[in-house]
Here is the input.
Amino acid sequence: MAESFNVKLEDTRYTPEKSYQENSWLGGYDPAYQRFLNDPEAFWADIAGELEWYRPWERVREWKHPYARWFTGAKCNITHNCLDRHINGIHRNKVALIWRGEEEGDERVLTYRQLSRQVLRFANALKKLGVAKGDAVCIYMPLVPEHVVAILACARIGAVHSIVYGGFGAAALNTRIRDAKAKIVITADVGIRRGKRVALKTIVDEAVVNAPSVDHIIVLRRTKPQLELYSEMELDFYEIMENVEPVCEPEVMDAEDPLFILYTSGTTGTPKGIVHTCGGYMVGTYYTTKYIFDMKEHDVHWCTADPGWITGHSYIVYGPLLAGATVLITETTPDYPDPGIWWRIIEDFGVTIFYTAPTAIRMFMKFGEEWPEKYNLESLRIIGSVGEPLNPEAFEWYYRVIGKSACPILDTWWQTETGMHMITTTVGEPMKPGFAGRPIPGIVADVVDKQGNPVPPKIGGLLVIKEPWPAMLRTVYNNDERYRQYWEKIPPYYTAGDLAVKDEDGYIMVLGRADDIIIVSGHNLGTAEVESALVSHEAVAEAAVIGVPDVVKGQAVKAFVILKIGYQPSEKLKSDLTYHVRMSLGPIAMPAAIEFVPSLPKTRSGKIMRRVLKAQEMGIDPGDISTLEE
Ligand code: WTA
Here is the structure.
């Protein structure tokens, strides 16, 4: 881990109009943070009290480092709060979900009542297939309404969903199915991307080989003629919903029962199955959607992530539905059929809250201002960013060109592990380009040195969270040891693995990862994962992977490869290896560059020193290399 270091900070700030804060749910940052400090448990209890529970909690929080339990003894079901609570109230016929396909006019709209009817039927269909509380269900789908239906149906019956992003390849899907021991895989025949069909079912076919836990594959068939389903094992998404009861009482869940597993890259080759629970996650995502995004009755919320990432779990599905919002989802890619498509969607649907990633913003900067200028973006009220640092240039562009120098930008720092926003400038507070902001009310975060002492302003250090929070991960599936590591690096704090720096006002700038994780277009990749995909190719003896700067993607993958004896370096082999990684892990993991090398820098114990490769690549001093062998 890095030591503390000096960072040069600029002090530009933008302050949104007063009315933003006056009319916000949170009110001002300082009084809200003070309310939290005065009585943290009362603070969270008040928020939890806005939701409906079958049985109230005995204690708000139980903390025995490194294990926390929230809302102990309480019973709930998150879908009751996402669906029934609205249907029983004034939101029965409010639009819950708007879907827009790639084709103009390809739209579907579901009210809360309609969404609920689908969810309940699908939940009953899962039950009929023998899925019970605690069983794992893998969802590998394109961004269509049925994806959301599948997620909520699992939660309805207490099945633990494990969503795998539809861009992952067969090997990555297989690892995740096997680790979670998924009984069911829910998929679609195809996803649609840039006018082309991506055959998802074919990838599932490959991924379920050697995955004995899988009893059934449920397939949403979108294309005509319909894909043929072969064995007893394969079932049609809508056929199984036909002869089931329309009513499905929610499973009564303990607040601490698992809600889902979501795999994220770690520093070893195996991804970590982050486990989130029903009660705390529900309160955390509800709180941040309502009080941080400041979700109001008439908001149309568009988060451009995919449900396969935590951002989609928390801010496409659970948070907004808990808050009773209208959620826009779309299968479109940002530059197809042209780079105006996203702005056209904002105009068409009157999107008011827009949440995207810095990589997308940088891509739009390259396309030029003429694209957003063609459309009316006046409906936008709040714009957000997540996934990697929002660099000042991208901030300025986003603020001026998209937000028309009026919208607050929420640069939200958080993680798969945190489940919910942790650090951001709240609505109406002064914003500083490059800085995510301060820890939100409810969260205690700091920048510290290796010993856990806070570092002074303008000195870089490690980002830690000092107190447990409701939506925190509870364990790593099948590997509690890896869970404990988060809390044991700088005890008693949670170490996020990020480098950061604070200024005099307590604003935090996140600088990037302190470990072997590369963030490519906002997606986390473990270097070890890509390396093991490379060495699984017959020509490769050894491989090392680093992240190199990329103007649009933030970082890109560069691979150094030692070939086995008998193989010669060639351009053809480079493209074979790239293709091989694409097929195993998916397009996001594809190396942007491959270099064949005779040896790799290693420590005496045989660990590859990626730091040295990176320093060579960037032409900088690699620092202390005394542990290097050669
Ligand atoms: C990075 C995504 C800077 C960070 C929700 C973190 C950010 C990792 C920001 C988690 C931000 C996320 N500014 N860096 N606003 N948001 N990150 O698990 O390195 O996919 O540790 O969760 O993304 O990525 P994950």
Notes: The chain has a mean pLDDT of 94. The longest strand covers residues 540-550. Residues 264, 309-311, 386-389, 411-416, 436, 496-498, 510, 513, 519, 524 surround WTA (CB under 6 Å).
